[in-house]
Amino acid sequence: MLTTAAARRAILGAMPAYGKESVTVAASNGKVLRQSVVAERDQPPFDRVMMDGIAISYADVENDTREFPIQATQAAGDKQTSIEAGKAIEVMTGASLPIGADCIVPVERISLCNNIATLEAGYEAKQNQFIHPRGSDHMKGTELLSSGKRVSSMDIAIINSCGLTDVDVSKSPRIRVISTGNELVAAGEPVGPHQIRMSNGPAVIAMLQQHGYNDCEHDHAVDELDLLREKIGGHLDNSDVLVLSGGVSMGKADYIPQVLGELGVEVVFHKISQRPGKPMWFGVGAKGQAVFALPGNPVSTLVCCRQYVIPALNAASGEREQPPEFASLAQAFTFKPQLTCFLPVRLISSVGGQLLAMPVHANTSGDFASLTGTDGYIELPLEEANFPAGTAAQLHRW
Ligand code: AMP
Ligand code: MG
Predict the structure, then answer these.
(1) Does residue 119 sit in helix, strand or coil?
(2) Cα of 297 from ligand 1 centre, angstroms
(3) What pLDDT, on a 0 to 100 scale, did the predictor assign at position 9?
(4) CB distance 108 to 79 below 8 Å
(5) What is the number of the ligand 1 atom nearest to the C-alpha of 248?
(6) Proximal ligand: closest to the CA of 250
(7) Global confidence as pTM
(8) Is there a contact between 291 and 265 (Cβ–Cβ < 8 Å)?
(9) Is 297 in the pocket of ligand 1 (CB under 6 A)?
(10) Pocket mutation for ligand 1, best pick of 178, 204, 245 (most atoms within 8 Å of C-beta)
(11) Is the pLDDT score of 365 beyond 80?
């Protein structure tokens, strides 16, 4: 049986590299950027006034001038004016500094009477105060974003500031999610006492979307060889990624590995030394499609999706690898089966600023309701069984 690390390596090694496409900046939110974004202009693009007030020449202050006739007003967006000796220009935050001015006195430090600004008694203005110099944030041509960055709202600001209307991002893979099982009934349909609600497929799709993968469709297939072959075969032809739930364990109706084999999907591995999610199966279709067959137990499905499917899509999309994150166990935990344990946790921050992970009790790996309110899960290595409070473990946020 593969270790979790070996399974991850095997998956990453089998993933293709997705191509790129040009999309509007708004549509790039949450996608992986595939170009660099370079500053269009110096930032700020002009010496920028930082306070509402008056712009004056510091030479006048040195000559003990305290009263300044207001020559003009220059608001943000107004063209630059030139200041005359001994005078002030009324300015607003965001205005460009008037030519010849090198000092801003905030409105709170002056009194205005008959169009003359008088500096507050005893107020000492300094040269260059409240001026945000041109290019002091960054210079024209500076690379602000590079390929491999997932676009955030902050990045949307940067891209717009560079004057771009479209950017290159990774193409969205076509992902088809198939829930298998005779017992499954979708919400909205009548459910018999012997049946259960189909919750995995919609949850997997929601997780994929949360991570920026929106081209997802869901289908349900019953546990019958011919029907499975037909349904899965159809989806395989029309997708880049298949995510299946259920039918990969040792039960009599667990046909998925057999059906995938018959459809020409080459098995990369079956089973990982972990809990939950041990029966997971992974293979590659004839056209390079990644096929993730996840166990149907809902906690297993979601953990396997987060642990293997999402990182695989991120890597194929060219996303830069994120540094691992760690949290400390908030209370002692024991786990004896000699499997890597993915333990759902709620995060709490301690007074000392340490990130603490509080294990959340789940009855079984079918107890999906226990996951609500969890932030993710921690990874406890298979070599150990006793994990004292304070043990540092890798954290995977949902
Ligand atoms: P399986 O992996 O097919 O043996 O399923 C394991 C358990 O998970 C069974 O109790 C199934 O009823 C349940 N299960 C499988 N698929 C789903 C699903 N899509 N939604 C909710 N529960 C499921
Ligand atoms: Mg099943």
Answers:
(1) strand
(2) 5
(3) 98
(4) no
(5) 2
(6) 1
(7) 0.94
(8) yes
(9) yes
(10) 245
(11) no
